[in-house]
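Teaching note: in complex prediction, the entire set of molecules is handled at once rather than each chain in isolation. The prompt given to students was simply: 'Predict the structure of this complex.' The entities are:
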Amino acid sequence: MMTAGNPIDAERGLSRRLIDEMVDAESLVPAALGAANKFISGAISLDSKRTRNRYNRLPSAAELKAMANGAKFIAMSKAKGYLAPFKVIEAVEKGLSFDIEADICQEGDLFCDCAVSDVAKNLIGIFLNTRAAGRLPRIEGVKPAPIKKVVMLGGGVMGSGIVNVLLRGGFDTTLWDINREALDKGVASVRKTFDYPVKQKKMTQADVDSMLDKRLKTTTLLEDAKDADLVIEAVLEEMSVKQGVWKKLDEICRPETIFATNTSALPITEIASVLKDPGRMIGLHFFNPANRMQLLEIICAQKTSDQTLATSVSFARAIKKIPIVVNDAPGFYVSRQLGGLFGASVYLVADGVDSNQVERVMKNFGMPMGPAELSDLTGIDINYRVNKTFEKRLGDRYKIHPLTELVYQTGCYGRKTGAGYMDYSGAKPVPNSRVVEVVQNYLSAGGVSPKKVSDQEIVDAMLALAINEAALMMEQGVCDRPQDMDLAMIYGAGFPPYRGGILRYADKWGVANVHGKLVELEKHYGARFQPANVLKAMAESGKSFYPA
Amino acid sequence: MREVVIAGYLRTAQSRCRPKDPARDVFAKMRADELLAKLLPELARRTGIQPGEIEDFIVGCATAVGEQWAYGGRFPIFLANFPKTVAAKFVDQQCGSSMAAIHMGYLEIATNNADIVMVGGMEHMTRIPMGQATTEGGLISPNLALFSAPDYLHWDMMTTMNMGLTAQKLLVQSGLARDDMDKWALRSHQLAAKAQSEGFFDGEILPIEAVQADGSVITVKTDQAVRADTTLEGLAKLSPAYRKDHQITAGNSSPLNAAASSMILMSKETAQAKGIKPLAAIKSIGFAGVDPTVMGCGPVPASQKALKKAGLQAKDVDYWEINEAFSIVALNCIKELGLDPDKVNVMGGAIAIGHALGATGIRLVGTLARVLENRGGRYGCANACVGGGQGVATIIERL
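The expected output is the structure of the full assembly:
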């Protein structure tokens, strides 16, 4: 209860003797008055209720120490980086004395430590910014159009997750796919997305069946989208395929129908170029698994209208997602930012730094996994293709590192092929000897010897590049709202909330210091680390990302 | 029946308990089982045996509820990280608990059912207070019929459950006076203070590092309730503890204490084989039931039984340790058995040294063995009264 803030109900409180009496709502006031009178009359003695006077007293010093150590150990594994759980444990460990007044005073001090901490500021900021997400000036006063009927194109991994979200959101949902077989697979996948909540007894199988029955239709005919308010597309990631589908729908749907593509890699402006009114197209980029990840990246193409955006933001709220609005560009925001956060690792490893240390450091920093583990999960081949796109469309700065090229050439793509940076064939993942060999050969060929660096140096390099990438995106007009950018990384990429975000981190580090670090890194590693102009200007003028 | 000897004896100092003001008890932040567990490895070491050689561990405690419920005696074994092969039993004979433990260990060895038995006692009267606090807390639930059904009224449970009232009744029965009790209390403090200053108890007390209420750590190595500055006048000024017209006061009663005690018993042959010089041999034991409303007279028949079993008379016993649950208990026993007071509680008694209920039995026998050694006596008798109307006694012989 104390370290996680989980409440318990009155029944549990009663059985655990945390409360003395439980009454129903109507009897509350009379019961409270009765208890008060019992105290006044002395029928209940406050003294005998005091913990120090109860038969099971306070724990011994040895017991308390053992329990506190145990609690600290658990807190370290579950809440590292947060402050409150540890202060709670400290309050218990140093409290529980015979002098409750002193203990209360001490607790007050420890609470104050939490209240004025950066962690608190960051978490409060996240809370407030989450509520404000999507409220862009450009759509202020623009009334969102009502969305009742949604058509989902494609029942694959993303599509089935999105259908789950639509059904739970109460929308009349039609799932479209190219043939019956694909549709059946899609519906089966949708059902599967409800397995976990049913197992957890949050829903019954009957609820699921009823929901699918009442709200889900399936079709192989695009014509059935004619009365849709919103069409979400998650078909093959190929420009010609997507454009083909949308062109057809342009003839079928009403002019007001919003066209949303879930593409993660293709330029939405180009997809929209085949439409009569490109203003109706927007990117709704869900994160995998769509039914669990809270972030929804809303991508405005060049011509996306304010009306389309306003309706999309409102829709995002209706399906309980957090909308972060960005402009169309390669990798939109999150993908590219993540590339920036993990991008320095290949430079470090190519410089002789131990890749295991990089993994450990990033996990200690608070990321759910390090660059190699994430790469193996998403697919080294996928990442390679994404990087190739960046190289092509964003310029020389993003040229793929030769070591990355060599690793890709091994054909080890990660979990999907059984091995990537790690080998997953055994009981526990171990470094993949093929990749280790490639790295070692690369290092010896270049005359690079193993390099010892501190954990902080790794953090500095990784975060400097990340901050720079954010600055570049702001410069290039991808997004200009630091609070949205930080939220996106927290909800979409697992960035540790207690740190507030990449740009909060930048302000704390000091933009001038970030700039200085990048200048240093550019000297050593080259153009990838060249400071963004925006960052240079901020460093010189003493500005921060967030208002001071 | 084999001969049984006491091969080792070790206890903690007794702290002064204050259930209503726990911060002032030096042992307030330690549980009774933690105190006991601290003794056991050191006792084995000083005795010269391996813990694994101990076949049984019999532990006593008077208020064996809450923290003092010992899971059949195994918790102290676990806390001491002793080998799992050490069997255990828990015994409750109220104030006689650890003497009952000695009796049971003695019987196991004498009947050739064990060679080496460890016995222990513990009580923490701040953390688990005697009487009302635990009854109100629901940890002790005397059968209410005993208090109200006509068939049971003769037990007079209100008196039976209140040690002070039984002491008053014994006082009246004995014909002795307030002044006698106060004088005996003064004697107890004076002799205990003298023994402390001469370092007599150092040989039986293991110093304990105890965390205090304010977080500091102090070393506790002397019995905390001994008051060298006690005066007869001071004692006379104390008001009766239980009823206005009674004579039992806090001054002529034992204090509330926390402590643990332990002892190793073994067969005489085992001691010889190991080259261990015993403290004493156990000659005989005695136990008796008496009127619970006058429980303080229990030591008398219990001692008489033990004397008979030993083939001795009271005058043959060189030194006595009579538990001073109240002054009147010792005075009554002296009177009924015709003892020489100068042979009784020569290092002071429970009124000064303390009476951590469950730990007392071993404390009495152990101190007695050391007194025999110190004073060159041959036979000693330790006895105690027991709440609920009993007495226990143990006669030992210096070898």
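Point out the following to students. The first helix of chain B runs from residue 32 to 47. The CA atoms of residues 254 and 351 of chain B lie 4 Å apart.
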